[in-house]
Amino acid sequence: MGNRRQPQHDIPDAALMLRVGRGDGDAFAVLYHRHYRKLLDFFYAMSGSASTAEDLCQECFLRVWRLRERYAPTGSVVGYLFTIGRYVWYEQRPKIYRDQRVKSLSEAQVNGFDATDSRALPDALASRVEIEEAILKAVAGLTEDQRMAFLLRTIQGLPLEEIARVMACPVNTVRSRKLSAMKRLREALRGLLVL
Amino acid sequence: MECNEIREKLADYASDDTSHALRDAIEAHLAHCYVCREELSQHEALLNACRTALRHPLPLDRWDELRAIMDLDVPRQFPGWRKLVRRRAVAAVLATAATLVLVVRTVFAPAPLTQSDEGLGEDALASAPISLAPDGLISVVAASREAAPLQRYKDTVSYYFHSLDLDAPKPSGPDAETTPSPQKAPDVTGPSISLLMTSHIYA
Prior knowledge:
The structure holds 2 protein chains of 2 kinds.
Chain A: H1 2-5, H2 13-21, H3 25-47, H4 50-66, H5 77-111, H6 122-140, H7 144-155, H8 160-167, H9 171-189
Chain B: H1 3-14, H2 20-30, H3 34-53, H4 63-71, H5 74-77, H6 79-107, H7 122-127, H8 135-147, H9 151-163, H10 190-202
């Protein structure tokens, strides 16, 4: 009884996901709005493309919905979402890399613009866009495993153990991939970021 | 800890992946080491720049679009279909496994004993009358001996009686007096020796 009166927004992820498993679309909506930004950022950093990230994010949540009956509450729901996200990424990456060759540069330039930012004066905007482009390029230069470990740990803040489950590898492997990524990024961005 | 050791750990420290003990040691070192503090600030600058740059620039809420796809989703309208496929797949796997077990057992089974294998062949067993043990066992052994070459078995029986210091069955016939040695096989038939030996064991 108490659970029924409880607003969906206060319900923990695991309980929401169990409701989703029973076909509760409202619970899925709450889960979507709670976590879609994380997946969107993850796919954006992985692909370097805003529109690709949106498509992958939609595909990921659609996959979660279709596989809802198979969900078992063994880890965190965020980890579960990123596990599915990882599979979606591996599935779609040939098409992503093919498309990137055609249109990556123009899109990256548009993405940096934010008209509401008071600091977005022409010079500052130019330098910010340059930095963001350089960072995206440097991240794209990492291996996929390094990129994934780095993003999940330092940007998304998942614990190492959770990342190990997502990437299906030992914790120490995740740590070494993250450290390698940080080292390579520092080398790539040394001139730009006053490192 | 020395600066070199601390610097190796600074990347983990900046991304909050150190144990409490190591964190305390690093912070104690940073309190008096300017160079390592600079090194740490570079790690932190890198992470902050990445956290800013690697965010989606125009996050749009596409829930309505997703909801429309969910409503049109075909597998949702036929929930029993996948279960049926899954059940059939399990049945196929079990049937394959059972077939494999049968094939392996057939291929790697030991060869059946034949008449040349000391008389315990299928022919001998088939010819034996079926009755309860121990009578049945005696019958089977008797039938087996009957169908087998006897010489080796006779030697064995002879040794058996000799080693137990028993009186071996006396050979009968015209040359009985000339062959008293226990080493020589007694001139008896297979079934009689088998029956004698088996009954002796049971006794």
